[in-house]
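Final report, Chapter 2: Outcomes

The project's central promise was a pipeline that accepts a single protein chain and returns its three-dimensional structure in a standardized token representation, suitable for archiving and comparison. That pipeline is now operational. To close this chapter, we reproduce one record exactly as it appears in the project archive, with the input sequence first and the structure output second.
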Amino acid sequence: MVAVLKQAEVGVPVAEVCRQVGITEQTFYRWKKRYVGLDIDQLRAQRATPKVLFCDNGTEFTSQAMDLWAYHAGVQIDFSRPGKPTDNA
């Protein structure tokens, strides 16, 4: 999320950033309102890192960056079954 906000800060158009990561502009601006000005150490102090992250098979969750973050943070990623959106309810 912070990386998404940083892309827009360096000049990538918001619509392009949203398209690349598969989020709506509404979500982008909600994140911006909530997290701009916070760094990663502040976010970690406010919120604990989850033990398990349950998500769908969208490209934003199956990237190498996400996998690397989860590995280093000790977070297990549990994916829903492909074609079963109700698993992620």
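Archive annotation: The beta strands are 52-55, 76-79.
This record, like all others produced under the grant, will remain available to the consortium after the project formally closes.
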